[in-house]
Amino acid sequence: MRDWIVNETAVRTEGASRPFDAEAKITDLQAAVESVIRGKSDAVKYALVALFAKGHLLIEDVPGIGKTTLSNALARALALSVHRIQFTSDLLPSDVIGLSIYDQQTGEFLWKPGPIFSNVVIADEINRATPKTQSALLEAMAEEQVTVEGISRRLPLPFMVVATQNPSEHHGTYPLPESQLDRFMLRLHMGYPNADDERKMLFDRAESNPLEMVRPVMSGSEVVEIQKHVGQVKIDPALVDYLLEIVSATRTSEQIELGVSPRGTLALYRSAQALALIEGRDYCIADDIKRLVIPCFAHRIIINSRSVGLKNKTREAEQTLNEILARVAVPI
């Protein structure tokens, strides 16, 4: 049995006498989230990829698709501190990171941490906040800390931002800048459910909300342990060259004005490791990389065309990446 599945020195579940079983824990977590999100197994799997690869997740789609439901289901299935922030145009940076308040009794300023000091931060409708408030997340997402009044404060680990947004053509929204988009490891599109899954959803919610039935199945220490296992997943040098060739193609393509950043390269590498681990392997295959190129890169590149809207730019970005994948030879 693989070392990462049963490791005598790994952390143990509370009150348990048996070794920590990472594979079983991942299966339980995936099942808990999928009990709420019907017919979206890939979206759920990629959400777990972002979690275990120490990344952040952006879920983008039209209203009512289940973006916030997926975020809440994942948060409920984890025994971690969770804060949901409803991003609006009047939200201030201090509402997110916190502020110092003067205490008249002591004559000193007391630090009041904001909701960013949580393991999981759900940034709902993130593009409805002003750029100034959006930027409050930049340092936290990149360095797992926030700096206020010259003092840097570490965030709890594990730390993950799960953000949702509707297409930016909608009224009252502020498109996320490239610097912020680049900090999201993956961007997902939920899409409409098929007829059978939508019918099951109606029956599921006939008497109660299945979200209320989700119970924590994984603790913070277990998440951290699995994150360590992700770093041990093997990637053959030939696959590393394949990954780098894809990245290079985004930087030299005439259709792309801004190619993938080194942060994006590292994001694809880590997410491929996490996907392999979730699927029960301690090594990566070329398909892991191919499947993750669009969710990992499409929001990072900028297409040359300036005349199309966000939806068309997204479609063009995905099409361009598919063309690159078709050109780059897969290692044998």
Give the secondary structure arrangement, pairings included.
Elements: E1 6-7, E2 20-21, H1 22-34, H2 41-52, E3 57-60, H3 67-76, E4 78-79, E5 82-86, H4 93-97, E6 98-103, E7 108-113, E8 120-124, H5 131-134, H6 138-143, E9 145-148, E10 151-154, E11 160-165, H7 178-181, E12 186-188, H8 195-204, E13 218-219, H9 220-230, H10 237-252, E14 256-258, H11 262-278, H12 286-297, E15 302-303, H13 310-327
Parallel strand pairs: 3-11, 3-12, 4-13, 5-8, 8-11
Antiparallel strand pairs: 1-2, 6-7, 9-10, 14-15
The neighbouring-strand order within the major sheet is 5-8-11-3-12
Average pLDDT confidence is 88
% residues in beta strands: 15-25%
- Count of all domains: 2
Q: Could you say which overall geometry the principal axes of the C-alpha atoms support?
A: globular
Name given to the CATH architecture of the largest domain: 3-Layer(aba) Sandwich
Kindly provide the name of the CATH class of the largest domain. Answer: Alpha Beta
Q: How would a crystallographer describe the biggest sheet? A: 5 strands, parallel
Poorly predicted runs are 1-18
Annotated CATH homologous superfamily of the largest domain: P-loop containing nucleotide triphosphate hydrolases
> Which structural class is indicated by helix and strand composition?
alpha/beta
**Cα gyration radius (Å):** 21 Å
What is the number of strand segments? 15
Q: Give the SSE order as H and E letters.
A: EEHHEHEEHEEEHHEEEHEHEHHEHHEH
CATH topology of the largest domain: Rossmann fold
Helical proportion? 40-55%
Which quaternary structure do these chains form? Answer: single chain
The total count of helices amounts to 13
Cα-to-Cα separation, first versus last residue: 27 Å
